[in-house]
Fold this sequence. Notes:
Layout: H1 34-47, H2 49-76, H3 92-116, H4 118-125, H5 129-162, H6 171-199, H7 202-221, H8 229-237, H9 240-246, H10 261-283
Amino acid sequence: MSTPQQSSPQAAPAWQGTSGPAYTSPIPIVRTHLGHAIASEWTKIRSVRSTMWTLGVFVLLVVGIGLLAGAVVSASATEADLSGETALSFGFFGVLLGSMCVITLGVLTTASEYGTGMIRTTMVACPSRGRVLAAKAIVFFAVAFVVTFVSCGFVAVVHVAMLSEARQPTGQEWLKATFGVSLYVALLGLLSLAVGSVVRHSAGAITVMIGVLLAPLVVAIFMFSSSLEGLREALFEYSIPNQLSVFYSTSLSESGPSGWDPLWIALGVTAVALGGAFALLEKRDV
C-alpha cells in the first residue's frame, strides 16, 4: 500500500515578513477648527441664489421706501410739522418691511439644508454639530449686520441732507439709527436661524417668525375689552415694530422699552433660542 505523501508547506510570498517604507500621503493632514467651518458656510451663503435675492430685496426696501418716505415728507410737510422730528426717524418704515427679508434668509440658512438633504453631507464633512451651527450663526450675523448697517447709514445720510427743516440728530441718535438698528435686525435674523434649526422646515419656520414679527401688534389692535387692557399694552409695547421704532426716537407708545432696551431684549431671546437649537441638534438625528 502506498502511503499518501505529506504535502510540504508552501513558501510564503516574498512580500510577507519584509518591512518596506510606510506610505505617506501627499495630502497634508490638518486638524480642523471653527475657521474651516466658517469658510465653508461663507462659501455656501454667498453662492446660493436665495442670499442674493433676499438681500437684494432687503436693500431695495430699506433704501427705496426710506428715500420715498423722506421725499414725500420733504415735499408736503412744513417746518412746523418737522420741528419735533429728527431727520432719521423716517427710515423706520423701510427697515420694518425689510426685516422680513432678513427673517427669511435666517430661516433658509439652516432649514433649507434639511429640505434638500444636504445637511447629511454637511454633518459628514464636519461631525461636530455644534461647530456647524456656530459657523452658520457667525457668518449670517456678520452678513446681516454689514448689509443693514450700509443700507441704514446711506438712508440716514440722505435724510439729513434732504430734511433740513427737521431737528438735526444728536450723536446718540445717529448711533442708534445706524449701529443699534443694524444689531437689532441681525439678532432678529439670528433668532430666525435658530427657529429654522429647531423646526427644520423652511415654510413652517418662516410662518412662525412672521407671526412673531406681526402677531403681537395685530392682536393688540383688536383687543377692545377693558379687562384686557394690561395685556394689550404689554403686547403693543414689546412688539417688534414698537421696539424698532425706539431706535428712531419715535416710539409708538409712551411706556415700555426705551433707549437700548430693545437690543438687550433681542439679545436675551436670541441667546435662549440658540441654546435650545444647539441642545436639540445634538440629540436629534439628521
